[in-house]
Amino acid sequence: MKKSKAKVAMLSRCFGEAALLQTLHSPSDSVTCCDFGANFLFAAGSSDKLVRAWEWIKGQGFVEASFSPLAGHRYAITSVRFSPLGTMLASSSSDGSTVLWNARTGIRIHTFVQTNGSAVRLSIFAPNSTFLVSAGDDGAICVWDILRRTLVRSLPAHDATIQAMSFSPDCKYLLTSDTVGVLKLWKDLVEPVSDLEDSASPSESIECLVSIVEDAHDLGVTGSDFASTQETPADNVLATRYTLATCGNNHLVKVWSFVVVHPAKQWNPPHSPASGSGRQSLVPTPELGSPVSPNSLGPRRENSFRIRDSKRESNESLRRRGSSVRRRHKQCQVSLKLTLEGHGSDVTCVRFNASATRLASSSLDKTVRLWEIQSGTCLRVLEGHTRYVACCVFSRDGSLLASGSNDKTILMWDVKGKLSLDIDLAPSLSAFRDKLSGSSFDSTGGSPDISTLEGGPKSSESHAELREVQLLQRIESPNGAVNTCDFFGNNFLAFGGGDKMVHIFSKSAGSRFQEVQNVSPIEAHAFSVNQVEFSPCGKYVASCSADGCATGKRVPGNFGTGRNAIRTSRFSPDGKLLICAGDDQTTSAWRTDTGELFLSVEGHTEAVTALAISPDSQFLATACSGGHIRGWAIASIWDQCLMLQEDAHDLGVQSCDFSPSAGMHGTESYLLATCGNDSLVKLWKILKDLNTPHATSSLLLSTPPAPASPLRSPKPPPSAKLIRTLAGHGGNVMCVRFTPDSGEFLVSTASDSTARIWSVHLGDCLFVLEGHNRQVTSCAFSDDSSLLATGSLDKTLILWLLPEHLVYQSVAASRLRGQPLYALDWTPADVISWLKRTLSFPIAPSISVTENLDGCQILTLPENEIASILSLEDPEQIRELALQLKWLRHEELNICLPEISSNSDVPHEFLCPITREVMRDPVVCADGFTYERAAIEEWFLSGKLTSPMTNSTLPSLAYRRHSQLKRAISEFLYDDSSEPNTE
Q: What ranges does the record list as Basic and acidic residues composition bias (predicted)?
């Protein structure tokens, strides 16, 4: 007993004396919800239908913002939440709506209306900032796309009202709970979808559901919160443990542990036979508690812990407390870690602090309690409200705790008892700008050279021009019509046509394209060029013609029979195949490395006029002049038609293209766009599972099934599902292409002399481009979608500059969604991207590296082994790699993470002006200031085209990474006496 009291006393001294700092008043009604945003911006909702916002001012404390209160709801406010980077605010109400606000100005961005118009009890942002999830009385989960302002999916999740909901910090899992005490854990609900359908089927709900805990709290769950940190069990480095707190109407607070096991992929070095043909060798996923070889997985995390209970012990523990667990996912284990008792009545809210070491809970007993998570000890009981406390929340640095009550007040508690109203907690932008002006890192040394920013040079004279498509350059082709064009990256352009040649242009100073001397033009064919395309690596240019040949510049040999015209030829996205088709009704795939024929399929009865390859390089779509579309598996052992869509377009199909995002990231379908002589553009959903074996890698499928019984006719191939028809052109539509970054937009060209840009998910025509005076035959986007090229029979090719708000909102959403929040989830492509932007020297990884080196390995393999895999021999390069790996592992694995008492201890140039927090990935924008990358991308995503520091229109929305500042921040946070091991 004495030891226990001594421990509590020690914890109390460490935690400080919590004290009341300030009292805020809600003039007309009780406070129902509250939240802290970036820079100590605070918002609260009340029963009077209003949302109020306060900001910190030195000497006065919290003062109501100039744009407060926010009026937009018809009934009481039930939830307010800031976006992860603090640029947006979402408020929900029992009127069935959720309103998205600009957190800086209070301007309404959009209103989302719940399905069936039922009351919304809460809404939360996904950790990647691009999705908003709302739930309420109908028991359904609604997932909203913030960029598109559309409903992504609606799941019938619970049979009762959903009152609590929270995301895991890596954005993978969503926890929902209801008024009868059921907890449900969902997986991948906020993955981008390609089928353009609003609602999810029951089978999809079952697939997303990972685990169910019944009777978690008697009489229902009222609140939940995931800890912001993730941990790894000591006996399995491939497992991730999430900590969750819940509260309910039984006066208890419970702390849960969710442990999920990740599949392990073993590294195959370049000389290993298993690494041939791009194959990936998978090792079995270990069960929880099974040992993992340190030789294959490298060092374990120093902050790891031991799982206390086995599966049997966990389930028995839950049953003793009246709960039961049903695991729908064999790699997920749920256990009850702590039960915290102390409140005298129902608990209304629970929230972790930023470091996940403390937990706050509010109750109908008029108190707020502070808990120490590791021991489950109650550190403080905060008393000050005269009626029940409805909500509580920590500030983002953990120094303040706010509690809102039915007594119409909000109490601001100084958690450590060291603050006063005279402290400069949130410096103003002007003060922040003044402090940055003396930075040794040139944060405000004038606007940088825009040509060095990611995305290339852009300039605009007015805010209006940022929202219009501008004609950038007109290129003449005096000797023939332009039939085809293609971009490589943002700086190279190829086109061909009636002059039988392929022309190569490159971007010069001043953003204009000029023909490459001594290379272009290329005398390619005896007849007009039908199609030209760069390979994904940019080393090759392929073209095809009516002379029956498809020629690849610097590709071994010619492709084609030479007897029939080839109408179309395209590279597979992985660059391993060049696929050609034409008048002989045959589609052939040739290896780009050897020039050998890999695959040949037949099935069309008329000339093949268009083809497209899925982004994962596993599915081929071909279309013919008769209007039919066929689908094939890209595998030399599979030549059967897997999908047949008859009469897709009257009078024939002219072009087709796959969305670059659909079919990737675990989605179960492809999105195909087609166009034809019926003046229409159509979007089709093609299921990935077409009764074919699963492909373990591109160009590789398992043995096909046995042929159908001769007593029974084979089942006809399934058709595609028509999702949307886009009408607007006044003539034959000749070409369609998706934007390559995210597939958010689609361009089409037609014989009516126009090109149209469409919103894929809204179905709206955004722009009609009128610059040609004859049929527009072709189109192509640059890599970042900032440029569009259109070719025409009028012997010109036009380069269009797309509006930056259109491009960069899409790019920002794509970046926020595409980059996993934790390095453990990185794909090989993510790893290569990190290496290229982090290291000061260029790297040229082999194919084996780009297909095998994932995030798990970059965090666990020894530094010298990774250097060997990358073929690094220079000692300085190896040392730099080891240092970057050391900092990455410090940041990702929370090893020896420094405890920063306040931002006043940090140099101001290390703080992001938007979030006022230490930057992890600093970037320099066109205004000359440095921001956290995710923060400025969320800024663009919310529709802002201005500088966060000067409020003036940005000349460009592109940015470049600040490597020097990133290195200084890493040294400040993580450097110690130990050097990285490079031996």
A: 299-319
